[in-house]
């Protein structure tokens, strides 16, 4: 399965928050680890008073909902999609010391060394030129700053679904350009230190229709268009035990500096 990474593809997939909301909902509903990935991510960050934080690809701003920044810290939220930024503004209405700006990670519109902390979660695998994007992040970070970028691994939901239908539907292998397995080497070209932290979790799905909806929300899983919803539901049903379909997840974050 070849991941599509063009500017127009990303613009269409994230023009509004509907696809992203569909993907988040399955995790909220069926994840075994009730900490929540967003809560876990926030625990990995080490913000200091007065720091300047930039999030690239902020989506709906859900990472920050209900959070408090340390004293005098300033948060800048950016996204490639104006529709996403509209959702973020609505979700974070009233939050202090936050600004919003439309931006492309491949050409970040801020000066060198402008931020102490840069975050880009679950988005680098969409970027046409990942190396350029990481170089831009390095440029806008102050010396000693931190780049936090969460991503998926190569043993998660997409790979699980692919394994079921690969032979019968002649599906090409799943390829993701920035994962927990290959992302470290890309970051090491620009940063002196790179840590990886993993989030332990899996799904226990009781209504496989939700998994079908998740798959259909992903344009990067377009190769599954040859598999009908009925085929998916039948295959998932055969794999359920005691009314539960166990689906692997593999997520984590890099911390680079």
CATH class: Alpha Beta
The chain-level structural class is alpha/beta
CATH-defined topology: Rossmann fold
Percent in helix: 25-40%
What share of residues are in beta strands? 15-25%
Order of helices and strands: HHHEEHEEHEHHEEHHEE
State the CATH architecture: 3-Layer(aba) Sandwich
Distance between the termini: 32 Å
Shape: globular
Provide the low-confidence segments as ranges: 1-17
Fold and architecture overview:
By secondary structure, the protein is of the alpha/beta class. It has helices spanning 7-13, 18-30, 37-44, 82-91, 130-140, 157-165, 183-188, 208-216, 229-238; strands at residues 52-56, 74-79, 98-102, 115-119, 141-152, 194-199, 202-205, 245-248, 251-256. The strands form two sheets. The protein has a seven-stranded mixed beta sheet. It has a two-stranded antiparallel ribbon with strand order 7-8. The radius of gyration is 19 Å and the shape is globular. The protein starts with 6 loop residues before the first helix and ends with a strand.
SSE blueprint and pairings:
Elements: H1 7-13, H2 18-30, H3 37-44, E1 52-56, E2 74-79, H4 82-91, E3 98-102, E4 115-119, H5 130-140, E5 141-152, H6 157-165, H7 183-188, E6 194-199, E7 202-205, H8 208-216, H9 229-238, E8 245-248, E9 251-256
Parallel strand pairs: 1-2, 1-4, 2-3, 4-5
Antiparallel strand pairs: 5-9, 6-9, 7-8
At a glance:
The protein has helices spanning 7-13, 18-30, 37-44, 82-91, 130-140, 157-165, 183-188, 208-216, 229-238; strands spanning 52-56, 74-79, 98-102, 115-119, 141-152, 194-199, 202-205, 245-248, 251-256. By secondary structure, the chain is of the alpha/beta class. The strands form two sheets. A seven-stranded mixed β-sheet has the order 3-2-1-4-5-9-6. It has a two-stranded antiparallel sheet with strand order 7-8.
